[in-house]
């Protein structure tokens, strides 16, 4: 008998908690100014043009040849797809959306509840000209995009400040609008109720807050919310970011892995042994995960309430930590993993290219274009009609020549070397692009908005999906 109850995944951030302390810092002051070396920066963004800011020094990013070499595993088909993605830099990228719009996460009108097929979302600047979108990012109930000029647009649920801008009414949340940053942004990342932006100077800016099972946990301090981006107090250049539902990982240039956020299921990878209030304060401070000191970290991934870390010594090793109720971390013991534990049941660790985490399931992509599933398999999220949990990585046979994967909530996506999109998983949120039916076998996503367009990227939230596409004819000469 299947005891699991199907339900829509609606994060607790849907309802605003009035007792939280809010931070509104338009000057982007760091909440903890402990940098030993500082320099003066004058922001060129209009909203803060005349404000001089103290910032920690920018350290020149160092290239590690060994790391670059170890991360170069790619198939010929993946290289071809990457060439298709990167060619014709002047081509116009378009954002498509599908799924639920109950909090405005699709960026569509307030009278639109859902979209079953990918629909074009126009993102325009204040001058009404189309923005050139470079990157998309879906939080649980909000969305973000990064333009080629380094600007950030956000929309969706803003109850906990995840949009990084002040919204006065529901119309402000449903429409994509500029989130003012103090400097040019290079990458975007999002969790359930927070957004992280990395600047070209390798600083991390965050807005929103972390949540726990009891509601708002806070940001840096208990019950605090940052309604506008603030600097994350890590005095080293950031090279990688991975966001789970309620926590964040930051990998620095020196190889230190920091974590902060909620730690109820061990997702921070570090212990706390003091009073509850001080435990929360410790959780909310970015601190190194001591387990990985001395490890050469190649890549980090996170999602739901857990994370994965790929390291390199004489061989590659994969570690995971956090919630493991459905063995989504690759361990048969179905209980929280509070200290990073090596995943030993996967024989192709040296071939891992990417890991994508849903709420209770995981996808693994290797350099041969194969995809493996882990964790909860209900509703087709692992590409089959099985209902038992998968405790060790199992290949999804229907997926071949895959070059990218994405997961979120209870759905999964894969892109092959021809640019075809396949999705599978729970359908009641319409975020698979196939309507509201569960998809048990990887099925190609089709639609008018996908015709004659090349897929660039997919990002999956709790109830919605974002697609970044490009007109095929603009780059055909370079294929």
Automatic annotation (TrEMBL):
Single GO molecular function: guanyl-nucleotide exchange factor activity
UniProt repeat feature RCC, residue ranges: 93-149, 150-201, 202-254, 255-313, 316-368, 369-418, 419-471
Record Pfam families: WD40_RLD
GO CC term, one of those recorded: cytoplasm
Entry-linked Gene3D superfamilies: Regulator of chromosome condensation 1/beta-lactamase-inhibitor protein II
Signal peptide interval: none
Keywords: Guanine-nucleotide releasing factor, Repeat
RCC1-like domain sequence ranges: 95-467
InterPro entries, alphabetized: Ran_GTPase-activating (IPR051553), RCC1-like_dom (IPR058923), RCC1/BLIP-II (IPR009091), Reg_chr_condens (IPR000408)
Protein name per UniProt: RCC1-like domain-containing protein
Organism (species): Adineta ricciae (Rotifer)
